[in-house]
Amino acid sequence: MSFVRAVATVGGLTLVSRVLGFVRDLLMAGILGAGPVSDALVIALRVPNLFRRLFAEGAFSIAFVPIFASTLASDGKEAAARFAEEAQAALLSILLPLTILAILFMPAVMHLLVWGMAADDPRWDLAIELTRITFPYLTLISIAALQGGVLNALDRYGPFAFAPVLFNVCLIAGLLLTPFFPTAGHAMAWGEFAAGIVQVVWMIGSCRRAGVPLKLRLPSWSPRVKRLFAVMAPAAVGTGAEQINAYIDISLGALLEQGAMTWLYYAQRLYQLPLGVIGVAISTALLPQLARAAKQGDEAKAKELQARALEIGLLLAVPAAAALLVIAVPVLTTLFAHGKFTDADGVETARALVAYAAGIPAYVLAKSLSTGFFARGDTKTPVRFSILTVLLNTGIALALLRPLGHVGIAMATGISAWVNVAMLTVALQRRGQLGIDRRLTRAAPRILLAAAAMGLVLWALGSVPFVAALPRIPNLVLLIAAGLATYGAGILVTGAARIGDLRTMLKRPRSVDPTTPTGLEGGA
What we know:
This protein is mainly α. It has 20 helices and no strands. It is found in: Cell inner membrane; Cell membrane.
C-alpha cells in the first residue's frame, strides 16, 4: 500500500469517527450544557484517555511496530506473533493491577491529576464516581492497540482505524439511554466502558481474519519484551506533549469558574479534529514505512517519505487553522449553542478555539518530525523536547491565567507546540535526517498563500450584511463552501498541489517485493 493511500485509509476512517464524535459532543452539549456535571464528566473522560493516548495508542504503537516489523522481516510471522503474545501478556500483568488500584484509590489519583479541584468542590464526588467507571477503558484499549499495531505492521490499517468509530457509537448509545441512568454523565461513562469491550472484540476478530490470532500467555519477559518496555517510557513523553498539554489545560481550567473546563474541552475537540484526521493518519502510516527504510539503510527513501508527510500535513493543516481562526464563533455557536449550552458558552469556547487553532500546523508537523526519530530507534531526543514543551506550556499558562483566563491557557499550548516543532526540526537537520526537498520548499509558501486568501475571503464574506443575517446553519454552510472553493482554487492556481501528483501518490503499487514481509498488501 502506498504511503499516501495508507494516509487516506486511516484519515478517511478517522474522519468518520470524528464526525460521529461531533454528533456525540452535540448531544452532550445540549443535554449537559457547561456546568458541574459536564466538568466532572470531562475529567472522567480525560483521565483514562490521557493514559490511552500516551501509552496505548502513542508510546506502545511507536515502540511495538518497529520491533514487530523487524522480527517479522528477520524471523518470520510465527516469531513475530509470539512476540506480540508475550507483549500482550506483559501489558495485562501491569494494567490489570494498575486499574484495580486506581479504582480503589481514586480520590488520591484525582488529587494527583486534577490540581485545581479541592475535595469540597461540588464536582469532586461525581468526578471520582464517573472516573471509576471509565478507568477500565485504559486496559481494554491497550489490548486493542497492541492488536492494531500488529495489523498496521502488516499494512492492514483499516481495522484499527475503524475502532474509534465503534467507540463513538457506544458513547452516543449511552447518551440516548440517559433516562435509565442517574445523570447523562453516568450514561456516557458506562458507554465508554462498553466501548472498550466492543473494540477489543472487534480487534480480536480482525487479527483472526488477518491470520495472526493472538493467544493468551503467562507473562514472559523475553529480551524483545524488555526492549519494548524500555522504549515505551521515553516514547510516551516524546509523543505525548500535545496530549499532556491538553490535559494540563483542563486541569488548570478547574482553577477558573465552573464551565471553563467544559469550554476548553469543546475547543480541544474542534482543534483536535484536523490533528486526529491528519496528524495521526500521517504518523500511523509513516512509522512502519519509515522504520522499514531506516532498517534497510535507505536514507534517501526515508527522507522522501518524511518530505511527503510534511507536505501533506501542511496542505491539510494550514487551511484548517486559517478557517478556525476566522470563523470560530459561527462554528461554535452553530454546532453547540443549543439546549443547555448557551450562546455565551459558545462565544467563550470560540475564544479558546482561536488560540488553539494557531497551533494546528505545529501539532501536525510534530507528529511527522518525531516519527523520524522513533523510526530510527531514538526516543531520547523527542523526550527531552517534549519535557521542555510541557514545562514551557505550564509556565506560560500560569502566567496568562490571571489576565486572560481560559484563553491564556489555550494560547500557551499553541506557543509551546511551535517551539517543539522548531527543536525537532533543528535536531533532524543537524543529523542530516530532515526530509525537506525542492518539492516541499516550493509547495510550502504556495500553501500559505492559498490559505491566506481563503481566510481573507471568509473574513470579507462574514462582514457582508446579507450573509450575517442568514440563519446559523445556512450561514455556516455558505462559509465552509466558500472556504473550500477558495482554497481549492488557490492551491491549483499557485501550483501548491497538482491533480496529477495526487493521483500518482494515491495509486496502489503494481507489485510488492515478495522478500519484504512487512510490505504485504493488506486488506484495509
